[in-house]
Amino acid sequence: xxxxxxxxxxxxxxxxxxxxxxxxxxxxxxxxxxxxxxxxxxxxxxxxxxxxxxxxxxxxxxxxxxxxxxxxxxxxxxxxxxxxxxxxxxxxxxxxxxxxxxxxxxxxxxxxxxxxxxxxxxxxxxxxxxxxxxxxxxxxxxxxxxxxxxxxxxxxxxxxxxxxxxxxxxxxxxxxxxxxxxxxxxxxxxxxxxxxxxxxxxxxxxxxxxxxxxxxxxxxxxxxxxxxxxxxxxxxx
Length: 237
Known about the structure:
71% of the residues lie in helices and 3% in strands. With 237 residues, the chain is mostly helical.
C-alpha cells in the first residue's frame, strides 16, 4: 500500500469532522450529528467524533447515549479533562450526584485551570449544603467568564445561601442583562422578590421565566443553577 493510500482514510475522516463543525456553525444540528457519526464509523478509535457525539446527545437530552459516548471517549483518551466534566453533567441529569461530583473532581485533577469544571463542582457543593466551598468556585468562574450570565447566576445563588441577598440580586440582574433568554436568573429573582415581600415583581418574574430557556438548568431547591457543558475539546499545547 502506498503512502497516499494509507493517508486517504485519514483525510476523509478529517473532512467529515470539518463538515460536521461547519454544520454546527450554521445551526444544522441533525446534519452535524450525521457527519460526526460518519467520522466515528470511518475511524472508530478517533476521540473527537466520539466526544462531539456525546455533546450533541447531551444537548438533546439523550443522556444514556451521551453517557456511552463519553465513557468510550475516556477509554480512548483517559487524560482529557473535558470528557470527565461532560460525563459529570450526564450523571447529574441522571440524578447520580455522587458520581457527578467525582467526575468534576477528576476533571480538575487532569486540568487544574478548568473554570467550567470548577463551576460545576460549585453546583455540586451547593447541593451538598456546602455554600462556603461553592462560593470560590463561582467567583473563579465569573473572573474567567465576565460576560457569562450562567456564571453570575450561580454566584448569586451562592450569595443567597450566605445571606448576602443584595449581592445576590445584583448578580441575578447582571445575568439577565447578559442573556435575557436564560431562565435561571429570572426564576431566582422571582424567589428573591417573593422572600422580600415584593409580590408583584415576583409574579412578573415567574411569568417571564416560564417563557425562557432551561438548557442545563438544574434545581438545588429553591434555586436554579446552570451546569457547564464543554462543547468542543480544548486544544492545549
